[in-house]
């Protein structure tokens, strides 16, 4: 079982004043489930691969903020929420060996950096709108996966992991929406585009 290794904060994030800490997370102390991947239905394996890709994109989304903005609040938000997404990613890495992961990992990492860096460069309202919109969509994505797991692979540990990750993503969406509850139309349009690309990315990750 892989342990979560310590990871330095985002380069460029402010370190003075209040320390950067991860928001509360349902995954703290949660061990990865011990799954017999050969016994899992192919559809569930595709779902796990898609979620591993999604968490990879999420970590790199927050990585992409570095160098794209000097806004201290945005940098702190990115650094702290990245710690939660990194915990999610480590759980999926412990479940899925390299041979079971997407073959496009370099592409997914680059996509995440662009998804975070572009809106951060445009301004905080754009970044928070993208995070709020994408994370709200991820809530529904995890809800569908949980329903699928209950039907096809009702492993208690797997269900706990998926439910904990879903809870965290809901909180991330709320956190971003609170920081800018009325984004301009351009930010809303960018968030819509990010959701559409996320939906397409999941479809591709299930297959490749």
Automatic annotation (TrEMBL):
Pfam family, one: COQ7
Keyword Plastid (UniProt): no
Stretches with biased composition (Pro residues): 1-11
GO molecular function: monooxygenase activity
Membrane-crossing segments per the record: none
Matching InterPro entries: Ferritin-like_SF, Ubq_synth_Coq7
Organism name: Azospirillum rugosum
Record field: compositional bias (Low complexity): 12-27
EC number: 1.14.13.-
Residue ranges, annotated region (Disordered): 1-33
PANTHER family linked: 5-DEMETHOXYUBIQUINONE HYDROXYLASE, MITOCHONDRIAL, COENZYME Q10 BIOSYNTHESIS PROTEIN 7
Name used for this protein in its record: Ubiquinone biosynthesis monooxygenase Coq7
Keywords on record: Iron, Membrane, Metal-binding, Monooxygenase, Oxidoreductase, Ubiquinone, Ubiquinone biosynthesis
Pathway where this protein functions: Cofactor biosynthesis; ubiquinone biosynthesis
């Amino acid at each position: 079982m892989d342990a979560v290794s310590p990871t330095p904060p985002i380069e460029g994030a402010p370190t003075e004043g209040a320390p950067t800490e991860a928001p509360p997370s349902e995954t703290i102390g949660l061990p990865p489930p011990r799954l017999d991947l050969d016994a899992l239905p192919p559809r569930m394996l595709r779902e796990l691969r898609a979620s591993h890709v999604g968490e990879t994109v999420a970590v790199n989304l927050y990585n992409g903020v570095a160098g794209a903005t000097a806004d201290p609040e945005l940098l702190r938000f990115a650094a702290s929420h990245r710690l939660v997404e990194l915990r999610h990613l480590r759980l999926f890495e412990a479940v899925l060996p390299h041979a079971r992961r997407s073959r496009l990992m370099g592409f997914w990492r680059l996509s995440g950096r662009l998804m975070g860096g572009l809106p951060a460069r445009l301004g905080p309202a754009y970044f928070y709108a993208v995070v709020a919109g994408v994370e709200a969509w991820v809530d529904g994505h995890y809800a569908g996966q949980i329903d699928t797991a209950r039907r096809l692979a009702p492993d208690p540990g797997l269900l706990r992991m998926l439910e904990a990750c879903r809870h965290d993503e809901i909180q991330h969406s709320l956190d971003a929406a609170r920081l800018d509850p009325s984004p301009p139309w351009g930010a809303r349009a960018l968030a819509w585009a990010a959701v559409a690309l996320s939906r397409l990315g999941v479809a591709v990750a299930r297959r490749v």
